[in-house]
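Dear colleague,

Following up on Tuesday's group meeting, I ran the structure prediction for the two-component complex that the binding team flagged. I've pasted the input sequences exactly as they went in, so you can double-check that nothing got truncated or mislabelled along the way. The structure tokens for the whole assembly follow below. Feel free to forward this to whoever is handling the docking comparison.

Inputs:
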Amino acid sequence: MSPRVLAADNSVAAGDPMLNLVMFAGFVTITLVIVISASRGSSSTADYYTGNQGFTGIQNGVALSGDFLSAATFLGIVGAVAVYGPDGYLFAVVAFVAWLVALFFVAELLRNTGRFTVADVLSFRLRPRPVRAAAATSAVVISTLYLLAQLAGAGGLVALLLDITSGTGQAIVIAVVGALMTAYVLLGGMTGATWVQIIKAVLLLFVGLTMAVFVLGWHGLSFLSLLSEAAGEHPRGVAVLQPGLLYGGGLRADLDVISLAVGGVLGVAGLPHILMRFYTVPTAREARRSVVWAIWIIGVFFLLVLVLGYGATSLVGTQRILAAPGGVNSAAPLLALEIGGTVLLAVVAAVAFATILAVVAGLTITASAAVAHDIYANFWRQGKVDTKDEIRVARRTAVAIGVLGTAGGILANGQNIAFLVSLTFAAAASSNLPTLLYSLFWRRFNTTGALWSIYGGLSVTLALIVLSPAFSGTPRSMLPGLDIAVFPLSNPGLVSVPAGFLLGYLGTILSSETRNESGYAQMTVRAMTGAGSRRPIPGDVTDPHPAVRQRHSQ
Amino acid sequence: MFSRFNGPRTLEVGGNRVGDPGTFRCLIFDTKVVDLDVTESQSTARDKQRPEARRAKIRGDRSSETPGALFAVAQSSWYDSPTTPLAGFTDSPSVNVWVETEASAEFARLRLRLLRFVVPATAAFLAWFIGYVALGAWAPELMGRMVVGEVTLVLILSVGQFVSTFALTAAYARYATQRLDPLADHIRQRLEGGPA
């Protein structure tokens, strides 16, 4: 029986919703058991925020790739390749190459100088209270927007996989996902979130590999014949192998692509939930190892995605993908149904749900750490706070963010909020990255510069996206009825990233703040050598970083 | 580990008061610069417990082919550590070990080594990446040209981005292990007062 005949019986392609549900429930049960047993007896802030730095580089590398390969990247890019060819694949290339910035400039230096949050790094040499408030603000804003994008995307997935098409039904499923995510965070903290992430990443890689082998097997193990089959099935023929189906056509569209690329390539190394992962390992060398592992896993997975995307074009067909309930996102599930029947579809469905769950759990931890550690413990109480108190605030924040994110996800369900993902990348590239790089490498950088680059970069990015055609003015906008689109590009990166760097520079040179030479010396020596991150420095007369002080008082 | 390569050797630097802080720069056949670290004895009390630390240690650079071919021991001791008062042979707690280390030639070398790799590597991969994106935007015909069978140039360059990223990752991991870690460990151990 040819695969296409099989597929014809399942035109909506829900597979077997019961089986999908059972598979997902199985994943949730297993991970909950692991989360509870892994986090038994953990009660310190270090346990909650970073799993007490107890992960190895490999474990954290797998978890990093899990954090990064969200449902949007897996389902979205497979579908984008299937429908738009190389233009759809561009985002994978952008997001992958971006890891080099994290490897070269951020991972090790961050691990050596911080403990829980990005703000730890900045507060070595800048005035701690204002920069903590600023860094926490950007972490919360970026993480919440990312969270919203993930949860809202769950709606389409639910429709496709569980055959739930009513708005109420989808809202209930989003609420269940939100509640589960909050449960993981409350029960397991970072340890729990990391194990969920590891399990999910391994499953995702395994599923991707299996499907890619099937797809290639179907085409005589030849990538060349896969491409010609795909071109044969696509309504635009060989155009699916060439650029131009999604982007391009006019200067504005071309600049938009460049803008997407700039925001994306510099954004990864500034995403708060990725940065926080570097604190779950004990040393800078393990942090480096985790990025190296993450790069290999993500790279291999994205190469598989190319095969899966063209496999979906060839075996499922563009029309059916676009007609399915989840649109472009349905390419991977439909391909699974095609090659492995309802069982493989159920596995892919469970992995996709697991992905949403794990990624939102990581985002929730990040945002709650920013609020509890930076804003409550250090900004509000100025460090005079005990562990129990801080964790209580972190947990409450996690619940609040869970509720807000879920409510937002339900409201945004079905909206065209795809721009939110590129917005979060651009925001990270325009606010967090300039601040981090200046702080680590520019001797003259000061508090004013940091505040300008964080708040300024964030505001410019948000303003540009509100004024862009992604938000209003075109039929495909989020608010099609409104037209305030004065900024021509949908991706703000091309303007907002230079703006973030420029603001950090101007803020620094225009302020009369005196330089903190010894703070800079301490930060840079710690960053590059790891001195003092595990042991105290004899003869260190400077006021030690709160991290060190806390570690010894514990 | 480079120190194992040449074997760490200690040397009393003639004509130089023991206790002079700073770093001596040695030239090997005019091509290779290695640093002689004189542990700054006035900086911390812990040096008193380790008299051998008062001796200058020659640590040959791993890449130097002729470790024994030192022909010049030169350069002033105060030159490399401007923040360290020459006359300050005190255990005064006002001396900041971080400022001192940051100003040391060894640390400058570590920073230089890091930047010497990551800055050109970043410039190269960003140029190659932006070039790839720009070609797709402004030369779609060229990028759509089929090279092997129906494999188009854009697909080849896309996979090429992956290959170059893998290569740079492996190269950096190797460079960091061989060239950065030993130096960083040395500085860290000196600050922390002995190997971990």
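Chain A touches chain B through 67 residues (CB under 8 Å).

Cheers,
M.
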